[in-house]
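Rather than argue in generalities, we have chosen a single entry, letters for residues, whole numbers for local backbone shapes, without further comment.
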Amino acid sequence: MLELSIVIPLLDEEESLPELTAWIEEVMKTLPISYEILFIDDGSQDNSWQVIQNLRTQNSHIKAIRFQRNYGKSAALHVGFSHAQGNVIVTMDADLQDSPSEIPALYQMIKNQNYDLVSGYKKKRYDPLSKTLPSKFFNWVTRLITGIPLHDFNCGLKAYRQNVVKSIEVYGEMHRYIPFLAKAAGFTKIGEKIVEHRPRKYGRSKFGLERFINGFLDLLSITFLLRFGRKPMHFFGLLGVIFFLLGFLITTYLIAEKLYKLSQNFPPHQIRQVVEQPLFYIALVTLVIGVQLFLTGFLGELIIRHASDRNEYLIAEKLL
């Protein structure tokens, strides 16, 4: 069994790969353990794959997987995690903005301090304000929702115990929320380490401002799935009952008001038909929404009941 796997997703990074590999080799000389470097080429259009092939002829530690097209960082990490063989897995970006010199300290935090996951924190960043300010807001909201006190959820430099990455599934754009996925899977010892952030030396960033919008949408999605994925009726059913009761109470009030006015012989011009009042249409809409939400929860429960993985749970240990 290997001690360390270094998983590196990449997209169009032909210039940085030789320098990155040489740097990792120098660092690993100070950490005499067995290791592998696993490059995941996410459909590069430049010569990245040819560079990796050439590097592999010179370095037996290198392994690589190439996608037919670009699928995104989450897909690259998922495939990297599934193929990683090390007891400790370190992830980092290929653009040289993550420093390989951080690897020994991250490894030691997993091995000697018993962390399940350690996330890098780029306290001093060399990015423009158009990236740093939205990032700070994004991380603040994520801390608030997840309850995990990390400052930089999206930092690519992270270290994991092997059973963490084998117990979670990273898909879509969920790579930003791997600490949240780990926590939901029962791995609660999550640490943070201040790491060096280096200016970009080659190429340009592959991510635009749209990642922050997508990030918040993904956060809402993953929060819902983790809390209600196996019990959709608890969410949709509760909302459905609330909306239905609200509509029912409004309708009851309108009918009771009309009956009261009739019993007290109010003048006809003061007695309006129930269906002529705006509140009646609000009540009607809330009744319909309530029924739809309840049925959505019911259908969700039927789907879950027939899902093949409905009773698959993570088991930490067995004594049989």
About this structure: Residues 316-320 have pLDDT under 50 and may be disordered. The beta strands are 4-10, 35-41, 62-66, 88-91, 117-121, 158-161, 190-194. Residues 154 and 176 are 5 Å apart (CA to CA).
